[in-house]
């Protein structure tokens, strides 16, 4: 859960990108890193296997200070996609404030998408996180490829309010929209629990603006 330090007025928010192997999780983080103002982004750390897939996680802290004087640190992680790393995915999910589920939009990946969605729900519940209330978006990625499904993942058991964001992450398209939609939901959740607007004069517009104004939109 988001950690707020009253003394230093620092808010730490954890965002996790989840999904099958090769669905585009790491691609999202690399695209965001390239677009982010170097003065506010942290170091992008990647641990890769010999076949160049993410083995553990990427972490990219983004720092900014709100007009109300609160310092916010947003930490972005990805989980490993390979089947054998389920326990690692569960560990990375601990304390998540928001999750972006990155799905390959091709019909050939339908079974894998469903399996990993169920994997996400299991691991959220194992961490005491309620998937019905946790800020959650689905990124419909790889729309630049052929054989894309024409629905918005109607087969996934979920609350209908979960937004689906179209993306071509390899081209940087939909990456910022996914993060923006997720942070919007995250702000509302944190405002309910921490009173961001009431206690710290931090509005949703300022919260989102502080992040997105530091991203180059090409």
If classified by CATH, what would the architecture be? Answer: 3-Layer(aba) Sandwich
Strand content: 15-25%
CATH superfamily: P-loop containing nucleotide triphosphate hydrolases
> What does the overall shape look like?
globular
CATH topology: Rossmann fold
Count up the domains: 1
Q: Alpha-carbon distance between the termini?
A: 33 Å
Q: In total, how many beta strands? A: 7
**Helicity, as a percent range:** 25-40%
- Give the oligomeric state: single chain
Indicate the low-confidence ranges by residue numbers.
Answer: none
Query: What is the highest CATH level, the class?
Result: Alpha Beta
Average pLDDT, rounded to a whole number, is: 88
* Rg from Cα: 17 Å
> What class would the helix/strand composition place it in?
alpha/beta
| Individual helix count | 6
């Amino acid at each position: 859960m988001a950690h707020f330090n009253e003394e230093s007025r620092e808010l730490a928010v954890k965002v996790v990108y989840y999904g099958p192997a090769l669905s585009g999780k790491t691609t999202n983080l690399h695209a965001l890193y390239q677009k982010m103002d170097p003065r506010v982004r942290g170091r992008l750390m990647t641990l890769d296997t010999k076949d160049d897939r993410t083995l553990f996680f990427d972490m990219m802290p983004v720092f900014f200070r709100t007009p109300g004087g609160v310092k916010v640190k947003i930490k972005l992680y990805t989980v490993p996609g390979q089947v054998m790393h389920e326990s690692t995915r569960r560990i990375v999910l601990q304390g998540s404030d928001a999750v972006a589920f990155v799905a390959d939009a091709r019909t050939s990946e339908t079974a894998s998408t469903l399996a990993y969605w169920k994997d996400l729900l299991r691991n959220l519940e194992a961490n005491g996180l309620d998937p019905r209330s946790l800020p959650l978006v689905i990124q419909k990625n790889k729309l630049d490829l052929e054989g894309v499904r024409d629905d918005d993942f109607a087969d996934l058991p979920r609350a209908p309010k979960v937004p689906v964001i179209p993306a071509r992450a390899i081209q940087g398209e939909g990456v910022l929209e996914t993060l923006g939609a997720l942070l919007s939901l995250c702000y509302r959740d944190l405002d309910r629990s921490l009173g961001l607007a009431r206690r710290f004069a931090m509005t949703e517009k300022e919260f989102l603006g502080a992040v997105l104004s530091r991203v180059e939109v090409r």
